[in-house]
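User: Can you predict the 3D structure for this chain?
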Amino acid sequence: MKISLISKLPLFLAAGVLSFACQPKKESAPEAPMTPAPAKATDIHSNADPQEARVKHLHWKAAVDFEQQVIRATATWEIEAAADADLITFDTKGLTIEKVQTDNDTTAEYRLSEPDAILGQALAVLIQPTTKTVTIHYRTNPGAEALQWLSPQQTAGKKHPFLFTQSQAILARSWVPCQDSPGIRFTYDAEVTVPPALLALMSASNPETRNKTGVYTFEMKQPIPSYLLALAVGDVSFKSISPRSGIYAEPSVVGKAAWEFADLEKMIAGAEELYGPYQWERYDVLVLPPSFPFGGMENPRLTFATPTILSGDRSLTSLIAHELAHSWSGNLVTNATWNDFWLNEGFTVYFETRIMEKLYGRDYAEMLASLNLQDLKSEIQSLSDDGHPADTKLKLNLASRNPDDGVTAIAYNKGYFFLRTIEEMNGREKFDRFVKDYFTQNAFKVMTTEAFIPFIRDYYQKQYNITLNDTLFEEWIYGEGLPNSCSQPKSIRFDAVDAAMTKWKEGQKIEALTKPWTTHEWLHFINHLPDSLTPSQLKDVDALGHFTASGNAEILAAWGVIAIHNQYTPAYAKIEDFLIHTGRRKFLMPIYTEFIKTAEGKAQAQAIYAKARPNYHFVAVNSLDKLLGPP
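Assistant: Here is the predicted structure, written as structure tokens:
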């Protein structure tokens, strides 16, 4: 039950959730009403009630204990309360609350609700309308869902442990008591103590070298939602790319990563030319160990990135363009709730594609768009086959569900093609002007789907005298599947791949036609292979593209599905090694899903998972346990 439904203390006591010693509530002088919180959609994934009391700034002091795998911390929140407020409510999950204080170190009365498997526990603290700060002394749990503690063996250097967080979507509450809703923003500063041999980094101002004390301070001046809180601690080095950008990674990886992302400053400058100034001062990238569950995470000032994009040929850097684009879409203008996730990701994929077009040309961007469309069609088919056609809508209904269920190609790629459709219907110049003004007018604010629709309609009507009709929004946002109005990307380079594929199907040799193919061309080729292949064909195709021997994670993952589907056993050892040493959920789910389609494959998948599971982050484990069952 959401704590806000029982937000008055007598009812809270009657609930019998957890008793505490009651102290008389102090009388307070009348106080002017707080600045009204911006109107927001009810966030079904948070217990917070920002209309009663909301956080404004976090002072976080923490010590990282690798031996016990816990963080011991004090979170002091500056708050703003309504004139009649007597409670402020935080989200927590698995935290041990040791003490709560309000202004001037006054011991505060508080209560924790019964645990909920998804939402965790609400922490309600008695306050006065005049209360300015709430301080929570606590420690995390060794199994905290946001935290991944890596042994030295799980790192590239093999000498030191490593810790990183993943707060999106609602995991920040497992390492910081907070109002864990994307609709609530705050600034923060921090002091973090770590072993002296390690460097600490956050989604804030960061050091470039380690110090002898192991004590690091941070500041985030721009207001962010809780899902953008981030911490990493490890044996990390830094290489500069430009005066405002650089790469962090383990010492043995940082040089390779810096070479891979040499165009980082060009990406930032290109993005600014499109949609306005970068508003976060620096843009750095931290390349994490392989267990990181996503391709990237757009933590402000410090993108977290998977090492699977270090392909050695700079062919997978569109992921960095994607995370950079989040500095406008998502970080600057944020979905108010996780039901509106497409507003973050649809705009970001659109922006990413435009950055890549600006740097590398139209046909390069069209290859990316074509692959996105292939992924989108596959996702729609998969969700429909699994009995979840409603999840192919852009506007989601995630009531009583983990918001991670909405992290599919629908939000990303259907959102992208919806925006691209508007662009193509009415002209790119008009759409670019709209997007730039959208980011400028809504900077550091939240957006719902229901607010976005009148915003764009009014903009096009007032600026261009163009009416965007109801059917457009009904089909794309509230309709299932892919509308007929979806644009069809056209790539000259993919046309050449299709021609080669036709010749291959006719039995002709195509080695001479495949030089030099990029990662994207090979992916297009793999995606269009026949559903069933003979052992001889599999061997020939593997020899052609060197897929089993590939060090490119995108290619190996796509090939892995083909190999398993056709029981191409020469690839199985490489696939098992890939699954054990790669934590990126995008790659894991399709491969394991293909394995379990047969009884023999399911047994093999479960055996591999038993070995690999300790290397995975909770985000990946949460999905894979549902698919395979805990080992």
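Residues 87 and 126 are 5 Å apart (CA to CA). The chain has 18 helices and 21 strands.
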